[in-house]
Amino acid sequence: MDKMKKNKKSQAEIVGLVIIVLLITIGILFIVKFVVLKENPNTKIDFVHSELASNMINVMLKTTVTDCKRSSVTELFKDCAAVQSHIDCDDDGIPDSCEKVNETIKIILDESLVKWRNQYEFRAYKPSYKEHPLSSYGKCIKRGNVASATYPIPIDMGTLFVRLDICS
Amino acid sequence: MKTKKAQIKMFETIAVLLIFFVLIGFGLIFYSRIQSQGFQAKLDENFELKAIQTAQLVSFLPELQCSSDGIITDDCFDTLKVEALHEIINNPQNKDIKNNYYFDVFGSSEITIEQIYPVVDSWPIYKKIPDDYKAKSSVKIPISLYDAKKREYGFGILNIDVYG
Fold first, then answer.
1. Which residue of chain B comes nearest to A27, CA vs CA?
2. Residue B47, Cβ neighbours under 10 Å: how many?
């Protein structure tokens, strides 16, 4: 009778020990999940990248190309995407809107995103010729957190899409 | 014999209580450390938000924005207005305007407008850097720079450094 009582007591102690261990384990898991593994909100980075992508394209398309009859980048893109280009910047009888627009975009990207060491991908393409973009600069090696902006430009035959991805 | 057993039981209880309080102590230290880290992260986030707030404020400043017949163009600064504001704020005679009005608006920060296309140019608008700043946050926003004399849009960058 006494032996049975002792056995029951040790069983109860073991159960108590197991409950304590379980509670401590759950507590540690809870702390790890909600405190240690908590991701810091990158408010500024998110804002800056999304603002950068949309402002960059918006401002770029509005920019006047000074040495090409004061045409804007949008006008040059429209002409470049047309079946027959007609804007001739240096009056040599050969239309050069594609050349000029790419030259201008390269200057702007080199002086901004490249200088700030931001990973980016800039493309200007017709949906049916996505593999052969009119303009293509940069390459995102890691596509983790991407902020994108796409602007459609109506052209003679369809739409030209100008897209900028900023990767981090 | 019975007294010895009771003494052992008492020591056992004291040891359990001691371990229990030591564990609670460790828990409290760990919790307070994590809490202080969280507090610091919150402070850092608020500081970063202040930089964004200043950037937004400058972007929509009527002293700089492009407008035509009262219609405002987004993400655009008029270079004539930029030059005028640069001269007003940096004129030693207008020290009061800079130290009172614009300090209330921009706080401890440095604001510069840079043109990168067609020509490289720069206009330092406002500069108030505290001697003992502990943190700095920078924001760069692309903006159009409209030259009303030539009726041309250039490509510019609004640089904002906020100090805390």
1. B27
2. 17
